[in-house]
Amino acid sequence: MNATAHADSPVMDIDLARLAGNWRTVRGRYTGNDLGAVVKCNAYGLGLEPVVNTLSAQGCLQYWALGYDEACRVRALAPAAEVFILNGLRGASARDCHIQRLIPVLNDLDEIAQARRAGALTVAVALDTGLGRLGLRPEAVARLAAQDLSPLRVRAWITQPSSFSRPESPDRLNPHDRFLALIAPLPAASRSLAISASVFACPGHHLDMARVGSALYGVDTTPSRTLPLKPVASVHAPVLRVADLPAGAEIGYDQQFRCPAPMRIATLGIGYAHGLPYALMNRGAVYFGPHRAPIVGGISMGLTSVDVSGLPPRLTAPGQWAEVFGEQQRLETLADIAGLPANALLSATAAGCGRRYHALHPEQPLASRLSESLP
Ligand SMILES: *Cc1c(COP(=O)(O)O)cnc(C)c1O
Questions:
Q1: Fewest beta carbons less than 10 Å away: which of 13, 111, 277, 295?
Q2: How far apart are CA 237 and CA 344, in angstroms?
């Protein structure tokens, strides 16, 4: 496939060298023992195989997948790594986990009982320290402490912090203290609390194992948006048409936008079917080089209009590309405007756009650095 084959639809470029760079940045900050990569949901949409291969080459030896099938794919890509299944035994049998050497994260007493009946198995156990989503509630932990866990081998106790912005809030009952209090009566195993935001926060709370996703993909989940991460994914959409519209001209269904003055409007080949949020109707902008082009009218299934009045015509002509997010505009910025978590915008556009990978070694000729995959 060559570049012109994509000229009517958007492309996500994924920079694997930056993925590797973000891994090294996180590695440099994390003070615990085991740094694991969260690759759930097809590595946040970016593609399991290129992501796992890149991280394994950086020395990653722990992966966290969402379900059994995804974990099996990681197992095949990284035969020596520890592979955890966040969804536990919901989509898998304990026997299959044993055969594939996968570590299910058990989320309640029933699952633990089910695993014990199946025989010896290495597991992780999740505790609920306030997120109220999955994991053993404090009452269940107390009952677990009174139980014999054999023949299970508990590799780790894990919990998901309930705040991105304050992973180690100064509250007396912050997730770290709550977690340590909860596991105090339980047998010794690795303790896993830290997620992306935690790694850049209080080093005293890193504990033994980290589960990091967003930071590796260059997504800053903290409110300050100051983490030293490089964006990994960028999305560009092609210009399909440019038109000079008179004052009063309407753009979009049901007069979603009416030109207050004569305007030059570029129609882009990207829409909500490619993951561009409908909430960007008359909000936000794309970029042509450093030039901002506001979105006007609604977001259609495959088209979006932007105001390119006054922009250099050579940058906005049909066949040129607009940056939707990437270097000029961070993913996080556009997601904020759309009222979405940055990872929601990342995974939606990754699923909706053609993906193009830029390999680790820039010295390789361009043709062999690009490999393409359709959604
Ligand atoms: C998604 C997820 C993570 C990763 O969180 P990031 O903020 O993306 O680093 C860690 N642990 C669990 C249980 C998760 O579901």
A1: 13
A2: 19
